[in-house]
């Protein structure tokens, strides 16, 4: 890999990545952010899992995309359109339109993760993602 992971890529570099690959990355980034945000207060693993699933299921992601649309730039809307059009049409349990929106959101998350992580964090705040965890008081004193 020629470029460090922490350095954002240029939009033109990211345009060469398929929407499906961006959605694949975006799915992981979205779930990691939710898991990280929900890690405090400490809970049983099953409770974490139930909370994360409620955030990452396709229906929830589609609703989040609907809420974000008015906040997106023209370039971001183009990425959303690419992602929506790349969603597979054969689905097991979800309405195709919902799955297309969820895939579009994941594509946008993957794109912004690579190009503008600060913008991604701002959009997460717009959709009221769980707040990033803060250290519990006992750990803050040691930091």
Can you identify the CATH superfamily?
Ribonuclease III domain
| General shape | globular
Which structural class is indicated by helix and strand composition?
A: mainly alpha
For the largest beta-sheet, the strand count, sense and barrel status come to: none
Average of per-residue pLDDT values: 85
Please identify the top-level CATH class.
Mainly Alpha
Poorly predicted residue ranges: 132-143
The tally of helices reads 8
Strand content: under 5%
| CATH architecture classification name | Orthogonal Bundle
Number of domains: 1
Task: Bin the helical content.
Answer: 55-70%
At a glance:
Helix content is 66%, strand content 0%. It has helices at residues 11-15, 19-38, 45-56, 58-68, 74-86, 96-115, 117-126, 137-140.
Task: Report what the structure shows.
This protein has 143 residues and is an all-alpha fold. The protein is 66% helix and 0% strand. The chain has eight helices and no strands. α2 packs across α5, α2 crosses α6 and α5 packs across α6. The longest helix has 20 residues. The C terminus is likely disordered.
Topology diagram in text:
Layout: H1 11-15, H2 19-38, H3 45-56, H4 58-68, H5 74-86, H6 96-115, H7 117-126, H8 137-140
Helix pairs in contact: 2-3, 2-5, 2-6, 4-6, 5-6, 6-7
Q: Characteristics of this structure?
A:
Ribonuclease iii, N-terminal Endonuclease Domain, Chain A, 66% helix, disordered C terminus, 143 residues, 0% strand, mainly alpha
